[in-house]
Design a protein that fits this description.
Elements (H helix, E strand, L loop, with lengths): L1 E3 L5 E3 L2 H12 L7 H8 L7 E2 H14 L8 H18 L8 H10 L6 H5 L2 H7 L13 H11 L13 H12 L6 H16 L3 E2 L2 H6 L10 E5 L4 H16 L3 E5 L9 E2 L4 E2 L4 H13 L10 E6 L5 H4 L17 E6 L1 H8 L3 E4 L8 H4 L4 H13 L6 E4 H15 L2 E5 H6 L37 E9 L8 H18 L10 H4 L2 E6 L1 H7 L8 H28 L16 H4 L16 H11 L13 H6 L13 E6 L2 E6 L3 H4 L13 H11 L10 E4 L10 H13 L4 E2 L2 E4 L6 E3 L4 H4 L4
Parallel strand pairs: 1-3, 5-6, 6-9, 9-10, 10-13, 14-15, 16-21, 18-20
Antiparallel strand pairs: 1-2, 4-14, 5-14, 7-8, 11-12, 13-19, 16-17
Helix pairs in contact: 1-4, 2-3, 3-4, 4-8, 9-10, 10-20, 12-13, 18-29, 20-23, 23-25, 23-28
């Protein structure tokens, strides 16, 4: 039997070479055997096979052997994949080339930004070779390294050629973000610290930064919030903005709440309004046509108030019934509620639907001032001169719950919580694609609106702290590194639409957490255990405290953000002051850190950033860092992730020791424990949380989920101060546990 080498030569098949590679790949790894691998791959070896194909067979064979009982084959597969990657990129498996050579080569290829060599001397770059730890490439598990190759390492997506290996990627990200530091000795130290946090998985970066930083493409904001006004210029120019930002890797949040309803008068009745659905179809087409193939799909979430004239038609836009003419299925929808709605629901009263243009000031008060909103709402209910429709609050909510369960993609935005517990004096009108970003916006009137106009597109750059791999003692340094790097992103990126440049005045960042399920499990607790609330409270107290402290320190160095006076922080009001006090019933511990001292520092020096924290989904990056997704309980000890390249198995961290300790999503008693944890986290977070609900149909005698339970969960979430709710995940026993990245936030957007 003959084997074709990479250079085209033919030689006899030598089993000893496979032995040698496998003994190397399995060295020191428990629970794996070379013989089992060879038996697995033997049938796939044929005469004329290439050496590349042999290596691919070895990798896939080990990947197929990853199970709950034999999880360590993920390390063998990763070792083999790393060997293959290095051979593919550099033609060698060891003795990596100098960093300078990689930079020069990739600049010549147009892959790296030429500004890198303008910011650093060759002698400086050579010193970074002493910082890079290429051995850390072997700390990836298979799922992580495969995800990195598929999605994050720079490549020519038409040919498949890869230009870098992981440690070069991490170093170039650090060098690019921290290039503006003037003191070269300090700059090298800062780069070393950030590099170590990234390459040891303490910090998890979002897709736009992982894919973009070090390249000539400079849009790194994960989330874009576009406010659409009630006029044609705003609608069409907002649609153009959606195209620009989708093409630059951002997930889109849209506010359609101010657009008048179908049948409304236009030009004194000369024509009537077609309603929101035709415009939604236009935005849907733009989003999907500008997708980043191979990196992420374009996706958007559109927001509507519960009292919008078309709300009953909006609720069904996502489902599979009806025709294409009256459905817009490739967008997601978030329905905004407030105190008045929940009160009327509980009291079994009616609500009234209006067209926004016929009820002046109602939208402005909605979610921002509950008392004023209720006064205006009741006033318009009594009016005899405007169109309105009365329906039972319970009927609407039941309809909403039904669509939320059937589609999984009808989201909840408790708009009054978003404003009452925000860091801004300005109104929050909407959220982003994945419901964790709450930033002020004003309608875009023209694509060329600039810094001097009122139009504001809100942007946010994201990242997450891997709480499973970070100790409480390490949090201060990690927070400092993450705030400094994300703040640098704001300066380094370019702004496709000028109205988004107010980001430079607000400087909003959103740092979340990931691997919480592992953190809870290794502390011997579960999501349902009341003690977990105290554990999470302590963790989040440290994170938010040191995030604020880091932003204050940066303000001392570089100045506070220009619009700091438009935040509650400027008055010394912190998240621990405004949170929903229902949380006090489930948290018994007291604050331990010196908050009053910090409050004085905030008022005296200001902060570099208007916001600091937001908890996003971490579906993509959880593979890279071998962590559980964000704050979510895993669906199984072994998950199969679906990507364009195939199925990727991922095992929960430390499965050998914690196999019986993990809380699995569909084994939770109910959503109460999870919601309590979200409420505790929200106590400290100045934006929102991409929180989910889980329902296991097998728990119900009839096999049907009662809508009353869904409603109770939503009411309880409101009671606990939860600002937003993302997916409603259901297990009906009919599908395999496969999470599709293209259909999840991971494929569409803002997830990291």
């Amino acid at each position: 039997m003959r084997v074709e080498k990479r250079d085209g030569r033919l030689e006899d098949f030598n089993i000893e070479k496979i032995h040698d590679v496998l003994f190397w790949a399995t060295h020191g790894i428990k629970g794996v055997t070379v013989s089992d691998i060879e038996i697995k791959i033997a049938p796939q070896i044929f005469d004329g096979i290439t050496s590349v194909q042999i290596h691919e067979v070895l990798i896939q064979g080990c990947a197929d052997m990853i199970t709950e009982k034999t999880p360590n084959y993920q390390h063998v597969a990763a070792n083999l994949l790393n060997y293959y990657l290095r051979k593919d990129v550099f033609g060698i498996s060891d003795n990596m080339p100098p960093l300078l050579d990689v930079i020069k080569s990739n600049i010549e290829s147009g892959v790296y930004d030429k500004v890198i060599l303008e910011n650093y001397t060759e002698s400086e770059i050579k010193k970074f070779d002493n910082i890079i730890k290429h051995k850390r490439d072997y700390s990836f598990v298979y799922a992580g390294l495969q995800q990195l190759i598929d999605k994050y390492l720079l490549k020519d997506r038409s040919t498949g050629r890869i230009y870098e290996t992981p440690q070069f990627m991490y170093m170039l990200i650090c060098m690019t973000l921290l290039a503006d530091e003037k003191n070269k000795i300090r700059r090298r130290s800062l780069i070393k610290d950030l590099y170590n946090d990234l390459s040891t998985f303490k910090i998890s970066l979002p897709t736009p930064i992982m894919c973009g930083v070090r390249t000539p493409s400079r849009q790194y904001s994960s989330c874009t919030l576009i406010d659409v006004g009630d006029n044609l210029p705003s609608i069409f120019h907002s649609n153009t903005a959606v195209g620009y930002y989708t093409a630059n890797r951002a997930g889109i949040g849209l506010n359609f709440g101010e657009i008048r309803g179908v049948g409304s008068k236009i030009r004194n009745g000369e024509v009537v309004h077609t309603g929101v659905i035709p415009f939604l179809k236009m935005f849907e087409s733009t989003t999907k046509s500008c997708t980043q193939n191979g990196v992420r799909g374009g996706s958007s979430t559109t927001h509507f108030p519960f009292w919008h004239k078309e709300i009953e038609d909006i609720l069904v836009l996502k489902n599979n019934r009806g025709t294409d003419d009256n459905r817009v299925r490739k967008m997601d929808y978030s329905i905004q509620f407030c105190r008045l709605f929940y009160r009327r629901f509980v009291e079994d009263q009616s609500i009234t639907l209006f067209s926004p243009h016929e009820v002046p000031d109602l939208f402005e008060a909605f979610g921002y001032d509950n008392d004023k909103f209720e006064e205006l709402y009741e006033q318009y209910e009594r009016s005899r001169t405007i169109y309105k429709k009365k329906i039972k609050a319970r009927a609407l909510f039941n309809h909403f719950c039904k669509e939320r369960i059937e589609t999984g993609r009808m989201y909840v935005m408790n708009l009054d919580h978003c404003n009452d517990h925000s860091s801004f004096n300005d109104k929050i009108k909407m959220s982003n694609l994945c419901q964790e970003i709450t930033l002020p916006t004003t309608p875009l009137n023209h694509i060329d609106d600039n810094d001097e106009t009122d139009s504001e597109i809100a942007l946010c750059v994201l990242s997450a702290i891997n709480v499973g791999d970070v100790t409480l003692k390490e949090i201060p340094d990690v927070c400092m590194n993450i705030v400094r790097s994300l703040d640098a992103v704001i300066e380094h990126q370019f702004y496709p639409v000028k109205a988004s440049m107010k980001m430079l005045k607000r400087r909003s960042i959103g740092v979340g957490i990931t691997n919480l399920a592992y953190y809870i499990a290794k502390n011997g607790l579960t999501y349902d255990d009341p003690k977990t609330c105290n554990l999470v409270d302590e963790l989040m107290e440290h994170i938010q405290f040191y995030m604020i402290k880091a932003s204050v320190k940066l303000a001392k160095e570089k100045g506070k953000c220009e619009w700091f006076d438009r935040t509650k922080y400027s008055k010394g009001i912190l998240p621990i002051d405004t949170y929903c006090k229902s949380v006090n019933k489930i948290v018994t511990r007291k604050l331990k850190l010196p908050w009053e001292k910090l409050r004085k520092e905030v008022k005296e020096h200001g902060m570099r950033n208007s916001t600091l924290t937001a908890l996003m989904p971490c579906e993509s990056s959880s593979l890279v860092t071998n962590s559980t997704n964000g704050i979510e309980p895993p669906r199984g000890l072994l998950s199969i992730k679906k990507s364009k390249q195939g199925l990727i198995p991922q095992v929960v961290p430390d499965i050998y020791n914690l196999r019986t300790k993990y809380t699995l999503a569909y084994e939770m008693n109910n959503n109460v424990g999870y919601t309590n944890i979200v409420g505790v986290i929200q106590k400290y977070v100045d934006q929102a949380i991409s929180a989910n609900h889980y329902y296991n149909f097998a728990k119900y005698e009839s096999g049907n989920l009662p809508m009353s339970e869904v409603a109770r969960d939503l009411l309880y979430a409101y009671k606990m101060g939860v600002k937003t709710l993302y997916y409603a995940n259901t297990d009906d026993g009919k599908t395999d546990v496969i999470e599709s990245e293209e259909e999840a936030c991971a494929g569409g957007a803002c997830s990291i």
